[in-house]
Design brief:
The protein contains five helices and no strands. The chain is mostly helical. The chain has a domain of 55 residues: Cytochrome Bc1 Complex, Chain D, domain 2 (Orthogonal Bundle). The chain is rod-shaped and about 95 Å long.
């Protein structure tokens, strides 16, 4: 019986060590959630340059857009005219496109 107890003690110590070490590992399932609206001010941030490259090339090559220089009022009128002709842009997207085009 005494030799059996001698084997149980190291086995118990080994089990405790394994249990302790398994609790020390890094938790790979932990994710860091971004703060609400982090990097935003109440709405989605839109990339005007990407929108121009994606939406305007449906009807125009980018050279035509690059060669045209309007101020914000001119680009706003142009973008509205293009939307009336079928350009698929939301109001926020129109604003992002006008902002990009008038500041490049």
């Amino acid at each position: 019986m005494r030799s059996r107890n001698r084997m149980l003690l190291p086995l118990l110590a080994l089990m405790l060590a394994v249990a302790a070490l398994s609790g020390c590992g890094s938790d790979t399932t932990t994710t860091i959630e971004p703060l609400p609206n982090e990097g935003e001010i109440g709405r989605q941030i839109l990339d005007g340059e990407a929108l121009v490259a994606e939406r305007c090339i449906v009807c125009h090559d980018l050279q035509r857009v690059d060669e045209t220089s309007y101020d914000a009022v001119g680009w706003e009128a142009t973008v509205e005219r293009m939307a009336d002709k079928g350009a698929q842009l939301t109001e926020d997207e129109k604003s992002a496109v006008v902002e990009y085009l008038s500041n490049r």
